[in-house]
Design brief:
The protein is an alpha+beta fold and about 290 residues long. It has two domains: about 120 residues, Roll (2,3-Dihydroxybiphenyl 1,2-Dioxygenase, domain 1); about 140 residues, 2,3-Dihydroxybiphenyl 1,2-Dioxygenase, domain 1. Helices cover about 20% and strands about 40% of the residues. It contains six helices and 16 strands. The longest helix is centred in the first third of the chain and has 12 residues.
């Protein structure tokens, strides 16, 4: 895959994980995905921010628990915006809350932590030197982000107002789309639209930026949240390796539309999904 060099507003662009013991987490994810891991914080800093790289390209990061954040391991989704301060105002106007007001991250960019009306937290990212994930859709790289919510209509109103997202209903489930995103992808990767059509991708899929999963009554007290999916070459092998490294395989590997997926809880408790692209699963419905 070609190296990414930025995103357009309204597209998830980066993920990192807060960890009580970031060094141990760096060893786990490096061992699981083959990341080359390097601490990007200056010597003597109070915390760590380990960049995970694939062939020199930024895939994701592992952070100490930020000041004021819950003392728990979790994955965070960042969404690209041109103006963090203006986007924070949109979040408030649409009924969301601001967890952390906009602040500069050295020369990397400017960000804020916000939550939707149901309480699902996510981050807004206005890029400086850091352009988000420069490798995607490869083994060990960011593949997808998804919102789990109990109130789909309320989520539609909120994310539509903040990012202009729309909802697309497919056999694989509900998806968030950003009108015009497909045209942007086609411009950066000529022929992509035709390739997707040849593979049998449903109409409108090229505009998809994230998944939307309703939380059902059987999910107990699961709160609204954003989740993270990494691409893998072999879901079964990743499940085995995760166990060897001390993780808990919550479910799978299971066949799903276009994919085979496994849900993993890392050794410190952060949940994520590993997804293998399986074209022969295209006929499976969610």
């Amino acid at each position: 895959m070609p190296e990414r060099n930025g995103y357009i507003p309204g597209v998830p662009c980066w993920v990192d994980t807060n960890q009580p013991e970031p060094q141990a987490a760096a060893a786990f994810y490096g061992g699981l995905f083959g990341w080359a891991v390097e601490d990007s914080m200056p010597p003597g800093s109070d915390g760590h921010y380990f960049m995970g790289r694939i062939d020199g390209r930024d895939a994701a990061a592992i952070s100490s628990i930020p000041s004021g954040a819950p003392a728990m391991a979790m994955w965070n989704t960042y969404i690209w915006v041109d103006d963090v301060d203006g986007s924070v105002a949109k979040v408030r106007d649409a009924g969301g809350t601001v967890v952390s007001e906009p602040f500069d991250v050295m020369d990397a960019g400017r960000m804020a932590v916000v939550a939707d009306p149901e309480g699902a937290p996510f981050c807004l990212w206005q890029a400086g030197q850091h352009k988000g994930s420069t490798v995607v859709n490869e083994h060990g790289a960011l593949n997808f982000n998804g919102l789990a919510t109990r109130d789909v209509e309320r989520a539609q109103d909120f994310y539509g107002a903040v990012f202009g997202w729309e909802v697309l209903s497919l056999a694989a489930g509900l998806m968030w789309t950003l009108p015009g995103y497909g045209a942007h992808l086609e411009e950066s990767t000529p022929g992509l639209r035709a390739q997707m059509e040849q593979m049998g991708a449903p109409a409108g899929f090229i505009d998809v930026v994230a998944a939307l999963r309703p939380i059902g009554p059987d999910d107990g007290a699961t709160p609204a949240h954003w989740d993270v999916t990494f691409g893998v070459d072999d879901a079964e092998a990743v499940a085995v390796r995760a166990k060897e490294l001390g993780a808990n395989v919550v479910s799978g590997p299971l066949d799903a539309p276009w994919t085979r997926v496994v849900v993993i809880e890392d050794p410190q408790g952060a949940m994520f999904v590993a997804s293998q692209f399986v074209p022969e699963n295209s006929g499976i419905e969610a």
